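Example 9 (inverse folding). The structure is encoded as follows.
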């Protein structure tokens, strides 16, 4: 079915539950809970996942336990463990941990084409300072056999009115080329605000592949604020994208500014704009791919079972459509209807 619709035969999914998924939670998830999820993600067949962040604990107390998590990760050489290191000090901590022998396989930096003002708010640096930081990090990380990703925030958002008329896509594409010339291993093209729509996504990735056609270089990451996440992922699949990021139950969003009853200093001037700020649900995306005969190498039932457990860990029902009761029509795996698909080819 995939080949007949210009879709890839196989895609890669990185699960971000333990990092992006938990950073917006208002209670600290215990180390044991995080390790339980990581262990079962590995058992289900996930080869890529984000497991922590190196932000200062006063800003993101959810990750003050990073060392205990890293010390107890499953010892699997076929799994890549990634960490967000947005900022110089966070990057230095990650590099130091790698030098000590910890499994810091890949770090994620950021630069924001949306605007230099936004870049300084989130990353803490001007564009010129950010470029120097990225270049230095690539050099130091590669010397330690680590991979470096850079995410481009704001490419699907309205331009900053203070900057006037700005071609965000053009700026993002220029940033992409410069980053890859620097030796960055891959680029994340995120929609952190959930403002993209499928036609926009298709057009954007057409331009991306015109300039950098290797699908292994590109990752799509959508926060499903308007319920168009799966449709945007389908549009990206149709262009040829093969790498995606998700969270169990659709968890995620901006870092919480109130955790375990204590106010947390957050990103000044930024706030959630949606009642449902998390990523595309891992369960829902897997169910869709399974029904479309697109291979992932991931065990669907094990993932659905884990999704139910994550609901118990966070203490509430989550946003996945596919985590309904086992016998309820519309929940769980979708019948493939092979004969119907054959007739329509």
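The amino acid assigned to each position is listed next.
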């Amino acid at each position: 079915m995939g080949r007949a619709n210009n879709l890839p035969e196989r895609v890669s999914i990185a699960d971000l539950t333990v990092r992006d998924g938990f950073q917006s939670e208002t209670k600290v998830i215990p180390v044991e809970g995080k390790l339980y999820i990581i262990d079962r993600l590995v058992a289900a067949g996930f080869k890529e996942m984000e497991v922590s962040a190196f932000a200062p604990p006063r800003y993101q107390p959810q990750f003050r336990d990073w060392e205990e998590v890293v010390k107890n990760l499953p010892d699997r050489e076929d799994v890549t463990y990634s960490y967000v290191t947005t900022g110089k000090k966070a990057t230095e901590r990650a590099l130091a941990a790698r030098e000590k022998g910890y499994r810091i396989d890949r770090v994620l930096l950021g630069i924001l084409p949306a605007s230099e003002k936004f870049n300084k708010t989130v990353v803490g640096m001007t564009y010129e300072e950010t470029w120097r930081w990225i270049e230095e990090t690539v050099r130091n990380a590669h010397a330690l056999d680590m991979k470096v990703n850079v995410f481009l925030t704001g490419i699907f958002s309205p331009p900053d009115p203070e900057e006037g008329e700005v071609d965000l896509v053009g700026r993002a594409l220029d940033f992409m080329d410069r980053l890859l010339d620097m030796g960055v291993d891959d680029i994340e093209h995120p929609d952190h605000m959930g403002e993209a729509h499928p036609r926009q996504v298709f057009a954007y990735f057409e331009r991306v592949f015109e300039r950098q056609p290797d699908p292994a270089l590109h990752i799509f990451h959508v926060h499903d604020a308007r319920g168009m996440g799966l449709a945007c992922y389908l549009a990206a699949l149709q262009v040829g994208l093969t790498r995606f990021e998700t969270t169990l139950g659709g968890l995620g969003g901006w870092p919480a500014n109130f955790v375990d009853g204590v106010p947390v200093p957050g990103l000044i001037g930024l706030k959630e704009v949606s009642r449902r700020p998390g990523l595309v649900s891992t369960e829902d995306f897997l169910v869709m791919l399974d029904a479309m005969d697109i291979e992932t190498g991931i065990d669907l039932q094990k993932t659905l079972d884990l999704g139910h457990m994550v609901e118990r860990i966070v203490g509430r029902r989550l946003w996945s459509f596919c985590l309904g009761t086992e016998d309820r029509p519309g929940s769980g795996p979708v019948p493939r209807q092979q004969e119907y698909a054959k007739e329509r080819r």
